[in-house]
Every structure is written in C-alpha cells, then in structure tokens.
Amino acid sequence: MRLFIKNMVCPRCIQAVQQAAEFCEIKIRSIDLGELETEQPVINAEQLKKFDNVLKNLGFERFDDKKTRLVESVKALIIQQIHHSKEDLNITWSTLIADSLHYEYNYVSNLFTAYEGMTIEHYIIQQKIEKIKELLSYQELSIAEIAFRLGYSSPAYLSNQFKKYTGMTPGKYNKLLKSNRKSIDNL
Length: 187
Prior knowledge:
The chain has 187 residues and is α+β, with helices and mostly antiparallel strands. The protein is built from nine helices and four strands. The radius of gyration is 19 Å and the shape is globular.
C-alpha cells in the first residue's frame, strides 16, 4: 500500500516519518520524500487514524488526492534537485518536471499555482535562496561558484535575486552570519 505524505523535505523528515510508522506498527517496504510504501497491502482504519495523528503532531499530513500527490511530487522533485543533488543545476525545469512526472508542464504549472498560491518558478527561487543561505553559511564557495552550481547565468543575477527576496546582498548576509558567530574562546 502506498501512503502519500505532505511536507517531507529532507532526510530527517524521512527518518521522522519512518519512526512514526514504526510507532504505529506499520511495516515499511520503502520510504522516500513524500511517499511511504508499506509491506501490508491494507492497513486497518484504527492504525491509519493513529498514524495520521502522529504525523500531524510532527508537522506532516497524509493525503490521497491525485492532484495533491502531483503537486507534492513537483515539490519533492525540486527539493531533491536543489538540496540533495550533487550535479549543477543547469537544467530546464519545465522539461525535467514534464519528463519526470509524465504530464504536460502547463497542466502541472497551473495545478501547482492553484494549490500552492505561487508559481513553480517562484517555488524554485525560494528553494534556491534557501540553498544559497546554506552554502554561504559554510563559507567554502564564492558567490560565482554558488551561482554556477545553482544554474544562475551570473553572480550578479544571483546577487540581485537574493537581495530581492531577502532584502540584503549575499555579502551583507555573510557579514551578518559572521557577526552572529561566536569564537570558540567565547563559548
């Protein structure tokens, strides 16, 4: 049996959902972002209700609607590509989404906007901004390297978009990070 779960965005989410399933005595065949496959072909209603309550307390939600599954699949694909893929993001998102999900991009895009209240493009930008913040916090890559890795045409374009969404430049964000860090002597 397949269960679809909203708000799974990282490996820790997978681990939390796995622990919730184990707590509810649901045997797992496989688990991935947004999806859990059980070993049992059917789960009883009481067990499912308990699982739903545990998920809700953890900030997750199980859903069955086909359109919601499609929207969640788009989000999981974007998160996977931006946050968990080691490859540079020089990709055409519309082609990737259409090919991966086997739907016309316009249909998926309109559905996503209707369900999420934002376009796929805006969601991609939000995820990229969060990844930029993460990469800046490591202080291992230059803005140019981050821009290349995330598929920006130039460091200037990355900086402009970052400022538009955060209100500060990447350099100012870096300074803010450094000023908030305590040296090991001050711990």
